[in-house]
């Protein structure tokens, strides 16, 4: 069956020959095939938007192979994906189904900040047909000019999962207590690090390993003591 983004909002127009539609007077023997095709099309659309897609590519050229069959860019095409690497440019691109690289911008169509896309981060983009760009409609960035210093996602056992920008290791020392070690310590004690955590619990503390270095962050859960969580550290000096 044709994919969700090609369907009409007028019910009577979705009358292509089975199993690609539901024509008037269709044979009873075609109903099961049409129903299954419908379920498959909805599943493809769901998986293209639930964050399970992972980009490929390198440098600042991201590529994406969606579940849906996309033969042309059109206004409103939306995808949610995990980034396979961190952007180092203000003009990264996304190439979907080998249709051609399109610049990724912020919601206003302006250039991104270096590091707006972080390895292991989950992002949603939608295609602006008028501007010919993908616009980033969700990200971890919370304010203009903030560049992530470190990022990771940790499971209930303290094991690093997706994302590991500037993260050396993590461990769960006790129920609900996690320690994350940075690969490169922050050596300027005048700088301020802002921690953003998600998915259960809060960070109770972070501390300087010595008077000149900050390497370790400790998290204690306030709620369920077995949650997966994400940590994003911004250098806001």
How many discrete structural domains? 3
Radius of gyration: 22 Å
Number of helices: 1
- Classify the beta-strand content into a percent band: 35-45%
Kindly report how far apart the N and C termini lie: 53 Å
Number of strands: 15
Overall shape: it is flat
Architecture overview:
It is a single chain. This protein is mainly β and 237 residues long. The protein folds into three domains: 4-47, no CATH class; 53-138, no CATH class; 148-235, no CATH class. Helices cover 7% and strands 37% of the residues. The chain has one helix and 15 strands. The protein has one helix at 31-47, and strands at residues 53-54, 56-58, 61-64, 78-82, 93-96, 101-105, 122-128, 133-138, 148-154, 167-174, 177-186, 193-198, 202-207, 214-220, 229-235. Strands 1-4-7-8-6-5-3-2 form an eight-stranded mixed beta sheet, with no helix packed on it. Strands 10-11-14-13 form a four-stranded antiparallel beta sheet, with no helix packed on it. β5 and β6 form a beta hairpin. The longest helix is centred in the N-terminal third of the chain and has 17 residues, at 31-47. The protein is flat. It starts with 30 loop residues before the first helix and ends with a strand. Residues 140-145 and 198-213 have low confidence and may be disordered.
